[in-house]
Structure formats: C-alpha cells, structure tokens
Design a protein that fits this description.
161 residues, alpha+beta, 4-stranded antiparallel β-sheet, two-stranded antiparallel ribbon, 5 helices
Length: 161
C-alpha cells in the first residue's frame, strides 16, 4: 500500500503491537499519547517535514508501519490535533566475539553479504561500539566495511532496560 509516497507494509507488526497497546492513552502537559494508525500518516508526514526544516536537512524515514519499526505513537493536544510523535526502530548492534587480528580482518569477506541481508529485512543501519583504546587500530578496517564514526556528528545516549 502507498500513502503519500510512503510505503506501507501491513505485516504482522501492527497486529502484535495493537494487541499490546490497544486503547493505550497517557496524558501529560495537555498532550495525550496513543498508538498511531495509518489514518495518522498525513499528520506524521507533516511533523516529519517540519523536523527536516528545523534541522536543515533531509532525514531518512523508515517504513513506519513495518518491521523493523516496532511502534509508532502520536501525541494529540486537547483539540485532538496531532502535534508530536515518536517511533521505536529495532537496530543492529554488531559485536565481534574474538580478538584476533586475522578474525577481524577476515570479516571484510562477509560484511557486504551481511549488510545486504540486513537491508533486505528492512534495517537501515548497523552500529558497532569500539573501545576508545582500540579505535586507532580498528578505524581503517571499519571504514573499509563502510562504517563511519558518529562521534563528530551525533552523541548517542543509551538506556539499558
């Protein structure tokens, strides 16, 4: 299904989310958060475009109603107008098991195949956390695998659940 240039894939994702979040509403500061629906897509697109204008650049939007997006929520004001939203997207976190230089170098052989497979599943990016003391040694190889350091562009905050 296509909705304003956004591909919609009504997989089992919506059913599993709606079974858990059906009827959910939480209000704070005059905004009520609830599960988003396909009918909310025009308002969501308006928020997305406003965010791009604010940031001054295009943002890569996932398929909001398909995996690996896990949930999309919107916030309505007291007049019922959607004024904010969020989505939670599953991400890939790559972790090397061994520490040998040979093993690390040989990951070049599978990096593109794994990337193609992950992309076919809908994932948009993969992350790898590198200890600061190893960054210099690993940077060249990670760049060959098309990883780039986000230290200059973003700051990642993590919450362990």
């Amino acid at each position: 299904m296509d909705a304003g240039g956004v591909e919609i894939n009504m997989s089992d994702n919506e059913h599993s989310v709606t079974s858990v979040w059906a009827g959910y509403a939480r209000t704070m500061n005059g905004l009520t958060w609830r599960l988003a629906t396909i009918d909310d897509l025009p308002a969501i697109m308006g928020l997305w475009k406003a965010k791009e204008r604010f940031l001054g650049c295009k943002q890569d939007m996932p398929q909001l109603f398909a995996r690996p997006t896990l949930i999309v929520m919107v916030a309505e004001n007291e007049a019922g107008v959607i004024v904010d939203g969020l989505y939670i997207e599953a991400t890939v976190d790559v972790t090397k098991l061994g520490c040998s230089a040979e093993g690390f170098e040989s990951t070049l052989a599978v990096a593109d195949d794994l990337g193609d497979w992950l992309k076919s599943l809908g994932f948009r990016m993969a992350s790898i956390v590198v200890p600061k003391k190893l960054t210099g040694r690993m940077a060249r190889l990670l760049e060959k695998m098309r990883f780039s350091s986000t230290e200059r562009r973003s700051v990642y905050w993590r919450r362990f659940l």
